[in-house]
Write a structure and sequence with these properties.
It contains seven helices and no strands. The longest helix is centred in the C-terminal third of the chain and has 41 residues. The chain has a domain of 42 residues. The chain is an all-alpha fold.
């Protein structure tokens, strides 16, 4: 760890007369330092951004024409790292035709790829009505183990009182959120419409594929 020093610099505590004298001495007889020795090799970064902006327009035009006519020949790129297989790129996927996408969707629908079973290392947590509101979970739900319910202490009854049977608690109906109910109904309708449209598109793709196959065998 580096010890951070947030204290003000020593120059703030120097008196004014002393600062003037030091500046006058540095001006009259500056300190002679040894020449700077560079141990690193400079890197050619090309034309700086400031020089490129200050360049006149006709030089940039001729430079662009020269790059088009006779581009600079660069040495081959040497990769020192090992490439990683990332699968199909997004640009290659977008360049394909729409029929390829339909056939792949049909293939995934009929014969989906078999993947290994998901292995969960953590236990599921009870939501406690997370569809309506977000609440803090109880520690009893996060701890794994049997729950122990302790008995209540018996109440002391005076000899003159009459014991009555406790009435059964009336279950209160939870209030229904109309906005949440309407949102859930709208989501169900949207899902139903999307399934219907998906079946139509799959049917059209299957009909087109059958038509193409029949046309190929008929007109050979």
């Amino acid at each position: 760890m580096v010890d951070l020093d947030i204290s003000p610099p020593e120059g703030l505590t120097v008196p004014l007369w002393r600062s003037l004298v030091l500046n006058f001495i540095d001006r009259v007889s500056p300190e002679r330092l040894p020449p700077l020795e560079l141990t690193s090799k400079p890197v050619d970064v090309g034309l700086m951004a400031g020089d490129l902006i200050s360049m006149p327009w006709y030089r940039t035009v001729f430079g662009n024409i020269a790059d088009v006519v006779s581009p600079e020949t660069l040495p081959p790129l040497q990769l020192e790292s090992r490439p990683v297989d990332v699968g199909e790129l997004l640009g290659d996927d977008l360049d394909r035709g729409w029929w390829d996408s339909l056939l792949r969707n049909l293939r995934d629908r009929l014969a989906p790829e078999r993947q290994p079973a998901l292995q969960l290392t953590s236990q599921p947590i009870a939501a406690f009505g997370a569809d309506a509101s977000l609440q803090i979970l109880d520690w009893s739900t996060l701890l794994s183990g049997p729950k122990i319910f302790l008995k209540d202490k018996p109440k002391e009854v005076s000899p003159g009182t009459v014991l009555r049977e406790p009435e059964a608690p009336v279950a209160e109906s939870a209030p229904v959120d109309r906005v949440l109910l309407a949102t859930r109904m709208q989501l169900g309708r949207d899902l139903g419409r999307s399934r219907f449209r998906r079946r139509i598109w799959i049917g059209l793709a299957a009909a087109e594929a059958i038509f193409l196959v029949v046309a190929i065998f008929k007109f050979q």
